[in-house]
Amino acid sequence: YNAEVTAITGAGPNFELQLSNRETLQTEAVVLAIGLQGNPRKIGVDGESDDSVQYTLDDPDEFSGETIVVIGAGDAAIENAVALARNNAVIVVNRRDEFARAKEGNLTLITRAIEDGSISCFFNTGVASIEPSTAINLTTETGETRVVCDRVIARTGAIPPRRFVESAGIRFPSDDPTTLPELSGHYESNVPGLYVIGALGGYPLIKQAMNQGFEVVEFIKGDDILPADHGILEGKFQHLPYRKNVDDTLALIRTSVPIFENINGLVLRELVLASELLTPKLGDVIFHKNDYTNSFMSIVDGEVQVEIDDEKFITLGRGQFFGEMSLLSGRRRSATVRASADCVVLETPRREMIKLMNSYELVRKIVDQHFIIRTLRAGLVPDAPQGELESVAETAELVSFRAGDILFREGDSADGLHLIRNGSVSVSRNIGGRDIVTTYVAAGNYVGEMGLVGETRRSATVKATVATESIFLRGDVFQTMLLRNSGLRERIQNKVKERISENLRMEAAPDAGDLISFLMQQGLGEATDVLLIDESLCIGCDNCEKACAETHDGTSRLDRAAGPSYAQVHVPTSCRHCEDPHCMKDCPPDAIRRAPNGEVYIQDSCIGCGNCERNCPYDVIQMAGPKEAAPSLFNWLLTGSGAAPGERLTANGPNAIKKAVKCDMCKDLSGGPACVRACPTGAALRMSPSEFVTLTKRAN
Ligand SMILES: Cc1cc2nc3c(=O)[nH]c(=O)nc-3n(C[C@H](O)[C@H](O)[C@H](O)COP(=O)(O)OP(=O)(O)OC[C@H]3O[C@@H](n4cnc5c(N)ncnc54)[C@H](O)[C@@H]3O)c2cc1C
Ligand code: SF4
Ligand code: SF4
Ligand code: SF4
After folding, report:
1. Concatenated DSSP letters of 521-558
2. pLDDT in tens, 627-647
3. How far apart are CA 338 and CA 474, in angstroms?
4. Is a pLDDT exceeding 60 seen at residue 311?
5. Burial 401-426 (b: 16+ CB within 10 A, else e)
6. SS3 letters for 319-344?
7. Can you list the domains of the chain with their CATH numbers?
8. Mutate to test the pocket of ligand 1, among 607, 612, 615, 657 (most ligand atoms within 8 A of CB)
């Protein structure tokens, strides 16, 4: 029909579809496979549909010598404008006075391009009309302007399909924009005869959309074939002690683990497909304390012991779960967990669990409650009865902060305590009229206790260094906990003493505070491991980059010279192995993983979509083509043949698929990262931010 469906009304077998070409279709069933990209938002002025106006850009090198107007201020607009500016005159139209929605790297690129004149930009400007292939008329702050151009590229976002989908009667379990519609085992929505498949149903790969399309069409024709993933699930269940078929095993998982009791059958199936079923035997370790894994574990059968310390154990049995602390905070495992009987444990990757929590409010609430109770037990009241902690958790409130948001200011009246759930915060005090950072507090810890014992006013300002979530406990609830738990007052008083002496030390050394503040601005508040270069020792030999290239097929994953410096500490462009890696958030084949040592690495299953490159705020991911076999260092030194270490080698042909590459902390090398080992002066250091902050404080 070559037309857009603008409305779907009715239910099977009596659907009516309105098409954009004004035709109407009557159908018995509808299969929605409209993806999540939505439709590009049109400019909304005369001339918007002309051939010289386009809403996507496949290949910027297709155009040369043209004058092109790019409308928009987001990442897509900036990336298009910068790429087109190589061979064309580019003018950007931004309806605001800044590029507030762009990620850091793109902001730098566009600012630099505007400054050096390679791109011109109209700020606070709207579009009045388009004269096809001739000009665009703009409404600027000083009046109307006509700009002569060959082409207009509008990158003003897409209209999300949710409203359209809901208008057809399909229900979503929550208002969260990432929620998926509720579907039956045959992908049928709550509207009989209306099916949802592909990306819109939460399946990010082409093969899934194709398999589902086939299954649904067969089902509509009356042939109830087995789903394509049936064999995969059979294989997954083979080693379990149950000897049950796929449907019965899924039912058993549902009845054994109450948190999954009310989730949709298809969602459970997907969750189990993405998960591993572990069968640890009595005494086997499921994960170790300090591992950097962040999966969620549900006990389908058996019993485990959580080893809090050498003397303290907690036993968890069938239906209970563990691993939620690292899942939510992104930090290391806080305890070792060992099977205390033969077990069946469902290990669910973080991404699937977060998706489930976003879709099911009840699942989120249960996981959050356990997080609060276990954080209180670990940090504040280890001996409080479970009932008391449950009522405290009931009153707690989850609060989200963007990077730079203030949790509270010095001098505010103290109204409660924040348990940092993920992200991190900096603590600063006004000293001599200047805000001096005295420390940073990572996820899993708390802030705000000083104002609740003795003092009534906040003694410091606390600011989110990165996007942060905290669990807020009201002051009155905390005071009741203080009265009920004799050890708590003493613990808090010790903490207050510790913080007062730390404050005094930092007040005497404001430079250390400035350095911590600089590092937080570079995203170290969410890093687990970062490469820092001591500029007082660095001789600029670039051995670090060369060694990195030598160990990674000729492409260095670190840019030594790029990145800012402060007080002789340089933060090169290199992966921070973030606690909650941004790059992992939207990887269709789930190719980005995190190893127990914290390293975030990319598997060969990368399909080169570039999402991670766009999502990393620190610009450390590159899309690289396949490399020719790199010559060995010896070969190059002795024979001079082949490319030098660090030299960029050509990809195999113009159509070679590029894949994402980044620092993997040299996971396959014993002895640690090549960059650090190659440094002749000891200038290159890899460490966790807390180690660095501690060193900074000690040095002053
Ligand atoms: C750059 C990139 C590379 C990728 N590479 C791979 C890869 O190598 N392998 C892989 O498995 N996956 C890959 N993916 C993911 C893959 O593209 C998606 O999983 C897949 O496209 C989803 O298919 P879909 O049919 O659900 O939606 P889409 O492919 O988004 O198709 C939706 C279609 O519906 C149309 N439509 C929307 N609304 C309406 C309407 N109202 N009326 C009529 N038509 C409408 C749209 O125009 C579009 O043609 C990649 C994704 C990206 C962004
Ligand atoms: S690639 Fe970027 S987002 Fe991913 S872990 Fe590294 S620094 Fe963080
Ligand atoms: S480019 Fe990045 S996000 Fe895309 S598939 Fe590869 S690793 Fe995943
Ligand atoms: S190897 Fe060491 S001295 Fe050489 S450039 Fe890198 S950090 Fe500087």
Report:
1. HTTGGG-SSEEEEETTT-----HHHHHHHHHTTT--S-
2. 555 445 555 555 555 555 555
3. 35
4. yes
5. bebeeebbeeeeebbbbbbbbbbbbb
6. CCEECHHHHHHCCCCCCEEEECCCCE
7. 5-38+160-227 (3.50.50.60), 42-158 (3.50.50.60), 232-359 (2.60.120.10), 387-508 (2.60.120.10), 521-699 (no CATH)
8. 607
Which token pair is 519? 């590092």
140 bridge partner residues: 143
Which residues contact residue 698 at a Cβ distance below 8 angstroms, ignoring those fewer than 6 apart? none
Instruction: State the ligand closest to the CA atom of 616.
Output: 2
Indicate the burial class of 600 (C-beta count within 10 angstroms; 0-12, 13-18, 19 or more).
buried
Atom of ligand 2 nearest to the CA of 523: 7
**To 10 degrees, the CA torsion angle through 70, 73, 77, 83?**
80
Report which ligand 3 atom has the smallest distance to the Cα of 623: 1
Question: Quick one: pLDDT at residue 648?
Answer: 47
Distance CA 511, CA 506 (A): 9
Q: What are the tens digits of pLDDT across the range 107-149?
A: 778 888 998 999 999 998 999 999 988 999 999 888 899 999 9
Q: Average pLDDT of 339-368?
A: 90
Tabulate helix, strand, coil % of the chain (nearest 5).
Answer: 30, 25, 45
Q: What does residue 273 show for φ and ψ, rounded to 5 degrees?
A: -60, -40
The residue among 304 and 481 whose pLDDT is bigger is 304
| Ligand 3 touching residue 592 (CB < 6 A) | yes
- d(CA 125, CA 140) in angstroms, rounded, equals 5
What is the C-alpha separation between 59 and 432, in angstroms, rounded? 55
